[in-house]
Amino acid sequence: MMLNGQSNLVFQDKPLEVQQNTENPWKIIIADDEEEVHIMTRMVLKKFTFQNRGVKLLCAYSGEEVKALMREHDDVAVVLVDVVMETEDAGLEVVKFIRNELQNPFVRIILRTGQPGQAPQDEVIRTYDINDYKSKTELTVQKLYTSIIASLRSYTDMKLIDTNRRGLEFLLNSTKDLFTVTDFETFYKLVLMKYMQILGFSSLSAEGCGLVLAKSKGGYIILKMVQNGVLTKETPQFEELPQIIRDAVFDTTIYQEYYTKDDLYVTKFTIDDDSERVILIKSTKRITEVEINLFRLFSANVKVAIENLNLNKEIIDTQKEIIYTLGEIVESRSKETANHVIRVAEYSYLIALNYGMELEEAELLKMASPMHDIGKIGIPDVILNKPGKLTVDEFEVIKSHTTIGHDILKQSKRKIMRTAAIIALGHHERWDGRGYPNGTSEKHIDIYSRITSLADVFDALSHRRCYKEAWPLDDVKAYLIDESAKMFDPVLVELFINNWDQILKIKEQYPDL
Fold first, then answer.
1. Least confident of 39-43, 50-54, 284-288, 392-396
2. Residue among 50, 8, 60 nearest 30 (CA)
3. Given a cut of 50, is residue 394 above it in pLDDT?
4. Band of residue 112 on the pLDDT scale cut at 50, 70, 90
5. Which residues participate in catalysis according to the annotation?
6. Nearest to 415 by CA among 179, 187, 182
7. CA 367/CA 352 separation, integer angstroms
8. 81 near 66, Cβ under 8 Å?
9. Reading across the β-sheet that carries 108-113, which strands appear in turn?
């Protein structure tokens, strides 16, 4: 953790800090009301190093000054504290403050006293959470060195154990989050955020960037990018990235488990179609061994999550294929093209998103809407494909396809099928209550049915049927507007018209065959 510059705090006009080494030094508080003790300790520790790090001495002359320094510096490693300062038990009060009020179990506390009788060693060690107890008369240079080294070693071990513990807790929670995502778009965003959180885990900072890249024709394209913990709206071209990052992506060692170099971490995944996805993390500092280990563990979980996403995608694709096939069977019986159900699904999805539905709910509607006419499977061909006008009795038979479809689908426990049952029953209801089979009106009609109804009528009017030719698009638009608040939900009609260009793109993408 990088340290700030020297503090300007001064108590009793005496210097509080003596800078010994600015390269990530250990912070040690000298707490004593005798200036001679400070001078002696500074001299002894002037050239002291441990694990290639020097020390930064923070000087305090009272218990209150120690408390102020501890509040300001949360990374103090050792406190050398005198028992008697402004009061006879000031040092003991400092110990209680550090352990109880600050809840700091890491800092090592060495209690020093010139009057052992006032604070008996046995009693103090039993009562107070201290790590060493020394009489000033016995604290020689060698013993001070020994105590400081032992304390720093203990402090380092405790911090490492705590970091690993918190890291494992973070990985457990993060892994749980990974398995709640059902689409790759959201998954990549979540994964990058988690990697960046790991990057800032030790220093409480997430400065740097993260990228998800996909291999494409010998090069790479950037799918997602996070900068300083924030998802960027626009991503650069791969060729615009610094050369060091591009080299890291292309480095042959990436084809093993992972690749690291100073401030870079790169790992690769293969998804179902054997295409490659690369995750690259760029830090603003050297990535620590702890962070690399957390990255590796998290990457293993990411790989499993990707495999699960692929399996989930395969299941969804299979369901979609079955649903479209069922819809095609029905439409082919009524001499309509298979692409009718696909177009209705795409129109419904587009309007649902613009209506404000969550992505998952809009996807559900997209999956279920192709089965809106499944009940036509129970209608005789002679009526279903009659080119002329239907009689009253024949129309009553046609109307029954709504209840037939509902009865076929409602028994299922699957969410898609139950949603499709709702749509099958209600997609011929009207906003004004004059529809069938139940004469339901306005918002009493389920939103899925209201959306599918509008999409279905638009597609039916804009394409040829056995009983009519396709209407001109301007006439279709005029009809939808005229039927707003009559046949259709007026809010949905407005959304449909406002997205007219996108509607027509879908129509062109899936033409009648």
1. 284-288
2. 60
3. yes
4. confident
5. 376
6. 182
7. 12
8. yes
9. 17-19, 55-60, 26-31, 76-82, 108-113, 132-135
333 has a pLDDT exceeding 80: no
Q: Measured in whole angstroms, how far is the alpha carbon of residue 411 from the centre of its chain?
A: 36
- Residue environment code for 291-311, b if the CB has 16+ CB neighbours within 10 A, otherwise e: beebbebbbebbeebbeebee
Task: Tell me the two tokens of residue 194.
Answer: 């988690």
Whether the full predicted model's pTM is greater than 0.70, yes or no, is no
Task: List the structure tokens of 125.
Answer: 């060690």
Summarised one tens digit per residue, pLDDT across range 366-383 is 989 988 888 888 888 888
What residue type is assigned to position 247 of the chain? D
CA distance 25 to 183: 46
Which residues 6+ apart lie within 8 Å of 235 measured at CB? Answer: 222, 223, 224, 225
Query: In this model, does residue 23 exceed pLDDT 70?
Result: no
Measured in whole angstroms, the distance separating CA 362 from the mean position of its chain's CA atoms is: 21
For residue 47, with 0-12 CB atoms within 10 Å meaning exposed, 13-18 middle and 19 or more buried, which class applies?
Answer: exposed
Q: How far apart are CA 113 and CA 323, in angstroms?
A: 82
**3-state DSSP of 90-129:** HHHHHHHHHHHHCCCCCCEEEEEECCHHHCCHHHHHHHCC
Q: What is the pLDDT of residue 467?
A: 67
Rounded distance, CA 447 to CA 494, Å? 15
pLDDT tens for each residue of 228-240: 767 787 788 888 8
| 453, 496 contact by CB (below 8 A) | no
Cβ–Cβ under 8 Å, residues 381 and 333 = yes
Label the pairing between strands 219-227 and 230-231: antiparallel
pLDDT tier at 11 (50, 70, 90 boundaries)? very low
